[in-house]
Structure formats: C-alpha cells, structure tokens
Protein 1
Amino acid sequence: MMTGFGIGFVYFGVQLNVENLNFNLYFAVAANAMMEISAVFIGGVLLSVAKRRLIFSQLAFIAGLSSILCILFSGGKQGILDKSGGSWPEFDLEAIEFMAASTAFNVLFVYTLELFPTNVRSFAVSVLRQAMVLGASIAPLLVAVGRYSPALAFLIFGALSIFSGLMILWLPETRNSPLYETLE
C-alpha cells in the first residue's frame, strides 16, 4: 500500500505539476501523453525480460532522481543552472520522470496480480488502486505548493518516488513463479 500510495502520488502529481515547469503548458501536456503511450509498450517489453521488483525499483529511482535534478533548473522564471529560463533541461528531466513513473505504475499492477493468491487477488488489486487514488488525491496539494516553491515540489516527488522503489525491495520476486491459489 505504501508503494502504491507513493507511485500514485508521483504518477498523478507529475502530470499536474507541468504547470510549474518553465515551459509551454500545452506542449508539455502533449509530450506527457506521448510518454505515457510509450511507457505502456516499454513496460510490456521489460516485464517479459526482467524481474518485476528490479524493474519497479529502478524506474522509481529514475523518476525520483529526475525529479530531484529538476530542482537545478526550477526556481520561478529562471533556473539555478540555466539563466535563460531553464526550459529544455527541466522539460527533459520532467519527461524522463513522467515516463519512468508511468511505466512503474503499470508494472506495479502486474506485480500485484502475481504477488497475491487467487482467493485475495481481487481484493489486493482493489486495495492497491485505492492507495494509488489516495496518493492522487493528495498530489494537487503539493502542486499548489509548487507554485510558490517548485524546488520543494520536485524534492518531495523525488523523495517519495525513491521511497516507493525502496519499499518494494522487501517483497518477494514473482517472475517465473507460480500463481498461487490459496494463502497456504
């Protein structure tokens, strides 16, 4: 649930946080949509060749690191490193962050389906979805804070994404494991 809350918070929050980028809002939203379409296919390929926990944790770390690096280019009208407005570097890092979070979001659903036995699988996926929605419902508050301090918003998105990637490492791997029928 904590992993679901974290990745739901980041996945939905990053989509809303494009308004705090030093970039054209309409182009940023369109680019995020293209990133999400690509993430579905990339996630499918990664799921067929790699371990689920490893995929999720690496994607969460990439999203978190990208978000934290966005701090270098945020800061109102001008970024710390790029005095011309910080548009392209910040935009590129945000796109990487969103693509990684979107792919991790999709991988987490597959992982949850494989993790729990049949008699509680539907309930487990429902609880995961509720945790993600809870994260999504709180994310707009951070986006509002990001209007005044973009660096703080990027830091919290990054830290929560990295935390989600760490939390999944305590769970068992499910790739090439049988789907269990009961808890026993």
Note: The helical segments are 2-16, 25-49, 52-70, 87-115, 118-146, 150-167.
Protein 2
Amino acid sequence: MCHSLEKKIFFSTKYNEVNLRNGPGVKHLLIYKILKKGYPIKVIEEFDNWKRVVDHKKRTGWISNSQLTNKKFGILITNLVKVKKFPENESKTIGIARINLVFQIIKCKTNWCKIMSDRKKGWIQKNTFWGDKNP
C-alpha cells in the first residue's frame, strides 16, 4: 500500500552511486544513477522500504531506504552565487559557488542558509538553491 508523507520529505543520497528505478524493488528497471553522495532529493511517495523521489531537474524514480540519509543537503540552481560571511547582502563575499554545487545545509534563517562545502562555511540566499530550506 502506497501512502503519502506526513513527515520529513527531503533526504540525500548516502553513497557516491545510488540507483533510481522505475518501481519499488530491485527487479524494477534501473533508469538513472545518481553519482554524488549528499545529492538532495524530495520524497513524494513511500512503499515498503522504498521511496519515490524527485530531484531538482524533475526526474522521478524509486530509491531503497538503505541508500538514503536524512542529512540536509542542497544543490545550487543559480550560477556564480556569492557566499557571504554573514546572512546579509552587505556582508563580505567569501566565495563564489557554481551551479550544480552540492553542499551540506547547516542552518537556515528567513532568506538565508548557512552551508558547508569542502569544509568551507558561508551563507547563501535561499532562492539560489533547491533542497530543505526549513531551519
């Protein structure tokens, strides 16, 4: 029996290679491989030990629960994003991030999230990425 979610909807991949299938189970056709640990995905349905997910490019498929983690990650959907020292536009720019960068989300405020990538931390605006934007 499929059921919709009332709990956490954003997850991320636990490994550097995760299979996306066209149905819930290993006998279903492999339709895509996600080759990035921490890749953020949104759960739209659950069945047994499987989650039906969608990514920021609207690709959908099924992933086994064992391949997912509830760590908060995001992916940039805007290119050349200014990473700020503090969550304000006037703050010093400490880096520039490129589109499709996958990063860990540490915490979020109203319009900003503190992120970490390659052990570097900074703040980016929420409208520059796709992922879990809840504090």
Note: Residues 81 and 97 are 5 Å apart (CA to CA).
Protein 3
Amino acid sequence: PFVTVVSPNGGETWTVGSLRTIQWNSNAGGYVNIELSRDGGSTWTTIASPTLNDGSHNWTVTGPASANCRMRVTSRTIPAATDTSNANFTIL
C-alpha cells in the first residue's frame, strides 16, 4: 500500500483565504489524515482527520504565513502508507 502527495509537493504559493485542493494518490483504501507543517516538517497540525481516501480534499488556506510549509497524508488503516511534500511550499 502507498500514499503519494501530488499537491502541494513543493514550490507552490498558496494565499491565506483561498480555496485549494490537496491531492494525493493512494491504493490504501479507507480514510487518511491530512496534516500541515509550517516549519519544514518539525511539527504538524491536523487539516482533516479522518477524510475519505479519495485523492483530494478542498481546504480553505489558513494562516499564519510561512515559506517552510509541507503537507503530509497518512492512511488511517495502514500508518506506514504515508507521504510528505517533497519540498517546502509557501503560504502568504
């Protein structure tokens, strides 16, 4: 089983208040947790948990702003099936 973050995967700029779609690929089924880090992956806050493992989740971007953001998607049934953005993205 796998989960692969597709977007945001690094280099994007998302604006606070805008509606964005978090996207991933997975064959793990069930549900996933979606988490955001604003410090390059040191700490995480939950965006959605649980949400259906259907490959996308619409999110209204929240502050605070950071140039060191990463998104992580993890299967709830198979926690080893997880992925994080390959590089930082920016929230303005």
Note: Strands lie at 3-7, 13-14, 19-26, 31-37, 45-52, 56-60, 66-75, 82-84, 89-91.
Protein 4
Amino acid sequence: MFKIIAFEGIDGSGKTTISKIIYNFLKEKNYNVILTKEPFTKEISELIEKSGWRDPILLTLLFSADRALHIRWLLEQNPEIVIMDRYYYSTIAYQSVLGVEEDWIVNVNSKFPKPDITFLLDLNEEEALKRLKLKKNERFNFEEKLASLKLVRKKYLELARKYNFVVVDATDAIENITKKIISVICSTINLKCS
C-alpha cells in the first residue's frame, strides 16, 4: 500500500502550492509519487457546484463517493507515495461546522486509508480571505463556506490535536514551510532525502 501525505487547511492556506513543491522534491528523488486533489472526479465536482453549500449531508456523501472513486483509481496506479491536496479531514472540518455530526462523517469515511502524515497549513480567516480575493478562479467559494472559515479553522485545530497533525504556520516564508515539511516527511516515513 502506498504512503499518503495529506495537506489540509482552510481555503487560501497554500495547500496546492506546497503540495506541488513537495511532489517535485520527491519526484527529483526518484520516488514513484502521485500528486492529486479532492474533489477528484469531474462529475461529482459538477454535482457539488450545482448543489452549492446548502446541504451539508449531501456534500458529505458527494465528497465521500468522490473519495471512493479516487482511492480505487490510486490503487490501480500502484504508487509509492500519494500527495493529497485535501483528504477526508476536509469533509470533517467543513461539514461538521455546518451541522453534520462529526462521528457520522468519520464513520462514512472509516473505510478509506488513513494518511501516514497530515499537515495542517494553519492560517487565520482574515489572511485567507485576502489571498482568496487575489485568486478569483478558486472553486467552491460559496458565500456560506467563506463565512464559516473561522469555525472551520477552529475545527481543524481540534482535529490536529485529536489526530496528531503536523501544524505549520502558513504565514511563514514558503522556504521555511517547505524545509519543515520535507524534514518531517523524511524522518516520519523513512525516505532517502539527501
């Protein structure tokens, strides 16, 4: 089974940028690595766009169905390492603050492989909103979702304590963030990084 390195955080925290940097680093070290993100499938992404952010139970089920297809596809690819730009902790963080029971979300996602390392790129909601204004093409920026960023961040920090995420200050310089993440990855999953 492949190793999963998951990047989590509120919108605008830099998950996509950091995921790409780590992917390129591991690729250069000749690891069989896949960079992927959730939501994964075009069809389910379109359903999410169509339903908006109004029905968190439907969203939980759509993201989970998408995840099932995603994991099946990854198993067929047989990589050594998978870098995830969002994984099931995103569903827990976002949908639980919209009123869905956390235990139910965890149960719905219980059959999916656990990440070997989860990094939480921590950023306050004011900075996140500033960054998102600069990035006009960000998907799923529904008004209700953006309004809940403060609560989602709080939930992520709770999840970080509960599930031992590595919390990284997303306001730090990108070089420092990258250095810290590479150091943790190399020591945690025993990679040859030098």
Note: The mean pLDDT is 90.
